[in-house]
Amino acid sequence: MATANVTNRKLADVSVDNLFASFAEDVPVAMEIDNAEDVDDVTDEIVPKRKKHRDQLESLKERDPEFYEYLKENDGELLQFSGSEDSGDSSVEENEDESESDGEKGGYDGDKEPEEPIGRKQTVTMVLIKQWECENPSLDLFLKLRGAFRAAVRQSESTEDNKSSWRIESSEVHNRIVLLCLSRMRDVIGSLSPTSKKGPQWSRLRVRVRSYLTDVLTLLTQSVSVPVLRHLLAMTSYSSEFPGLSRVLLNRLVRVWATSDDDLIQLLSFLSINRLLRKLNSTKFTEAMAKSMYLRLVRESRFVSVNSLQRLIFLQRSLVEIFLLDNQVSYHFSFTYIRQLAIHLRNAMTVSRKENLQAVCNWQFLRCLQFFGVLLGNSGRDLDALICPLVQVTTGTIELSSGPRFYPLRFHCVRLLNRLGRDTGTFIPSAQFVLHCLEQTDFNTRAQKASAQPINFEVIVKFSSGQLVERGFYEGVMDQIYELLLDYFYTESHRISFPELIILPIIRIKKFLKKCKVANFCKPLKQLVDKLNENGLFISERRSKVAFGIDDTVAIERWETETKAEGTPLSSFYSRFRDSKYRDNTQTDRRKLAGEELMEEFPEVGSDDADYVIERKKKVRSRDNKLKKKVKETSRLGSKEDAVNDTGMEPDAELSDFCLSSDGD
Q1: pLDDT digits (tens, 9 = 90+) for 185-224
Q2: Mutual angle of helices 263-280 and 243-259, in 10-degree steps
Q3: Packing angle of the helix pair 139-153, 200-222 (nearest 10 deg)
């Protein structure tokens, strides 16, 4: 046998292969690794016990005393065993096994949670809470607060599941102990734990802190409130020490961030997500949260109304902050999802089906475009390669929906392009899409009916059939054309090529002015033409003094930067226009809140004449009821085209518009 041959020869004459072959029979476990099917089972088998290892070395002493002496001289610690070492190692192994079993039973990070002594439960009273409020931070106070907090959070559980040594008997005590922990526990833990989160002091406290954070997470599941979120925000530095717990916490915070209607709760949940991701500093966590939050934004953007608009804007801007945490993650996801939008657009353009058109002309598609527009505009130069694909998808969306009914969607896309060009410094010619509306719509047509109220373009992506014949349609479209053209030319007002840029748009606007006979529509466009000519003359006079040529791009960029900083006539006019519009919107909102619109309708009535106002209200209500009755009678006769409901929309069109584009608010 190989063992006998090795024993009869000197150690120097034994090769390495023969030496390992001689131990193959004494260590049979090593031979089973090649045939092992489960890596975890093999890992458990190849860890030998100390007693077995000692027996193997004793047999080695009998079989090959020369090699045994060699080990004794060069690695004597390998041959030294004592009872204390055996017991110490076995205890370490037992602790590791217990820790792993605890992690499998439900622990977030595999730490063994210390169990409280089972015995007679102590009752938490108001007197005891007042003592804790005045007590200095200590480990004893931390353990008491943690135990009482666990009893309060798990009060609804059965006695067997609730292993806390404290008992809560009233709702008043429950609320008081929860508020006490949320207000004091951060300072108590901070006084006990080191700043670096390392060393034996933190090791002793680590498991207890994780247990407390688990209870706070349970409380967040039970009730979402401002104090709980404030506490989680303050405890972010400790939550980041437990990746498993952080993963569950982030998922729940994302749900709160996306679904809550309270502004403060939304803000606190976002701040907690942002700070926790910064503390973790992990690409894996950032990728998971960026994807989850983006899908939440798309899901919440299905319907848009006046009440939900500000919440969706906050979701969009806060998601941009999450994407900007990691430029690589941001580029990867932006490329993937912009490509997905392009695929939807291609399907809609190549296959003329209703479902393909609906997949593009809706709020979710538009919100995605707006999100990536804001993201690229705030990312510096890291995502500039994606500007061209986004512009192509946006212009393709405009060309796909070229009819008057989809003017709101077109205006949203043009506003996106204007903002993207302004934020990134990229020239994007978007005026042509606005001038197309000016030429396609006959503004000389007399409206068939008056509008009940002005159209809010911020909450619609398409017009209904009834809105296309209202007076508000023509007025609203003209206001949007004027505003978007002014916004576009303001963005380009500092360009050295501005005089040449405005030639064709001015020709098209003047052509429209010759055809249009409505003074209210001609007046704003004439003013716009005058301002464009004034700004063009300003740029021409300024550039006539330069000494560089058109091929000196560095000098041109410097000149444009200086011109933009000093200001132009068009930029000054645009600033006054924006201030005036903001002031008008603010006054309108205040009048709605104060109920002053009714008094404006009847200016001859004083604010004290309440009886007359009530009488006029009844008359208006009676008139509306008669109109509704007439609509029902007309629809009963089968004249669907003449049947118009009180919203100015066809009965069937109103429902379809809400389902497809969320026009209603």
Answers
A1: 999 988 887 766 776 778 888 899 999 999 999 999 988 9
A2: 150
A3: 20
- Residue 614, pLDDT above cutoff 80: no
CA distance 315 to 296: 9
336 Cβ partners below 8 Å, 6+ apart? Answer: none
Q: How far apart are CA 149 and CA 185, in angstroms?
A: 10
CA distances for 383 relative to 291, 339, 366, angstroms: 18, 14, 20
Kindly state the helix (H) or strand (E) to which residue 123 belongs, with its residue range: strand 122-123
Q: Which residue has the tokens 């020239």?
A: 427
| Chain length of the chain | 665
Rounded Cα–Cα distance for residues 198 and 196 (Å): 5
Q: How much of the chain exceeds pLDDT 90, in percent?
A: 48
pLDDT digits (tens, 9 = 90+) for 34-75: 333 443 443 344 344 555 666 766 776 776 676 676 566 655
Highest mean pLDDT among 63-67, 404-408, 593-597 belongs to: 404-408
Contact 319, 371 (CB under 8 A): yes
- Tell me the sheet residues that pair with 123: 167
What does the buried/exposed string (b/e) look like for 523-535 if buried means 16 or more CB atoms within 10 Å of the residue's CB?
ebbeebbebbeeb
pTM beyond cutoff 0.90:
no
How many CA within 13 A on the CB side of residue 220?
Answer: 29
Instruction: Report the chain's C-alpha Rg in angstroms.
Output: 37
From the centroid of its chain, how far is CA 206?
31
Distances (CA, A) of 49 to 46, 52, 90, 93, 566: 9, 5, 9, 11, 82
84-101 pLDDT tens trace: 334 333 333 333 344 333
- Contact present, 535 and 488 (Cβ < 8 Å): no
Give the residue among 246, 336, 330, 337 at the shortest CA–CA distance from 290.
Answer: 330
* CA angle at 124 for the pair 118 and 130, rounded to the nearest 5°: 140
Largest CA distance in the chain: 126
CA distance 488 to 571: 11
Report the alpha-carbon distance of residue 28 to residue 34 in Å, rounded: 12
The one-letter amino acid code at 281 reads: N
Of 75-89, 536-550, 559-573, minimum mean pLDDT range: 75-89
pLDDT digits (tens, 9 = 90+) for 95-135: 334 433 343 344 555 555 555 554 567 888 888 888 898 88
Q: Using CA atoms, how far apart are residues 645 and 386, in angstroms rounded to an integer?
A: 46
The angle subtended at Cα 481 by Cα 478 and Cα 487, nearest 5°, is: 140
Secondary structure element (H or E) that encloses residue 167, with its range? strand 166-167
Residues 268, 293 contacting (CB under 8 angstroms): no
By the 10 Å C-beta count (0-12 exposed, 13-18 middle, 19+ buried), 140 is classed as exposed
User: What Å distances lie between residue 329 and 282, 283, 289, 382, CA to CA?
Assistant: 11, 7, 11, 11
Helix or strand run (H / E) with residue 166: strand 166-167
pLDDT at residue 46, rounded to an integer: 38
Residue 22: Cβ-neighbour burial (10 angstroms; 0-12, 13-18, 19+): buried
Measured CA to CA, the distance from residue 307 to residue 612 in angstroms comes to: 32
Residue 84: burial class (beta carbons within 10 Å; 0-12, 13-18, 19+): exposed
d(CA 56, CA 72): 15
